[in-house]
Design goal:
Elements: H1 10-48, H2 64-75, H3 80-102, H4 104-130
Helix pairs in contact: 1-2, 1-3, 1-4, 3-4
Length: about 130
């Protein structure tokens, strides 16, 4: 996507990264609650903090949407490669922590379900844009 000056929209990349997180939260929060999701996410942030200290939120998370807004604000401040690398590290750590809590099989099923839902939604959005 471009803005009115045809320059790339810097928020587009972080929006795509947040899309995956929102789908994971949508599937996981009914099982572990919003506070459980925030606690797990906060722990993942703490684990990767030595390499990505700039991702640390200024305030503790109270709800996933608050957490995603804070994360997106930080991701748009750096270049796309750095943001993607930090998000990959965060997602990988989050997944590993989740697997230690509920087991690898259930974690894979939950993430596969969230990923499939995210892919379906992106496909619908792409089709809608092509038909405009």
């Amino acid at each position: 996507m471009t803005n009115s000056t045809d320059a790339p929209d810097p928020s587009e990349g972080s929006g795509r990264l947040m899309h995956a997180w929102r789908h994971i939260a949508q599937h996981l929060c009914p099982l572990i609650g919003e506070s459980g999701f925030c606690a797990l996410f906060g722990r993942a942030l703490h684990v990767i903090e030595p390499e990505h200290a700039w991702l640390a939120p200024e305030q503790p998370c109270r709800a996933p949407e608050q957490l995603f807004t804070s994360l997106e604000e930080r991701l748009v401040l750096v270049d796309a490669d750095r943001a993607a690398a930090a998000n990959d590290a965060l997602l990988r750590t989050f997944t590993q922590l989740l697997a230690t809590l509920i087991g690898e099989r259930l974690t894979q099923r939950l993430l596969a379900s969230a990923t499939a839902a995210a892919d379906a939604m992106q496909g619908q959005q792409k089709n809608a844009q092509e038909h405009k």
